[in-house]
Amino acid sequence: MSPLSRKFTTALVGIAATTVIVGCTDTATNGASSPSTSTASHSPTRSSTNRGPYKDGAYSADGEYGTRGSSIGVSLTLKNGEISAVDVTPHATDETSLGLQTRFAEAVPTVVVGKDIDDVDLDRVAGNSHTPDGFNDAIERIKAEASERMTRS
Predict the structure, then answer these.
(1) Counts for the chain of helices (H) and strands (E), in that order
(2) Average pLDDT per run of 10 along the chain, which is 153 residues long?
(3) N or C, fewer C-beta in 10 Å, the chain?
């Protein structure tokens, strides 16, 4: 293969890979869900280090997100690996962030109660695209604790 053919082939492969990546990104951000729609979905880019079984009980954790140390509190009750109750506590101090976290906190129970904790990985809820990262972080912390309690009992 000549050097020119090799460069052309490499360029085509690069364009094809970029098209696939952009296509995946477009689907993930512009899918059927509107910004105000609550969704709970599993993201293939995140991987949980914990998968049941989990000890039944009440758990709480703060989840962090963003670059400025934003966080949100999550308290939940687990029964047979399923979230039977959840309460989200906003920690924001400025008015705009507090409003976003409050709307998120109000929407979360309808999205996660009754779901297996291993299936919960929020993407966008009540117009929030970053606060769910804090929620997901708290869920991972809770799963680690619930798993540890299970192995100790």
Answers:
(1) 3, 3
(2) 55 44 35 38 47 93 91 97 98 93 97 97 91 97 95 85
(3) C
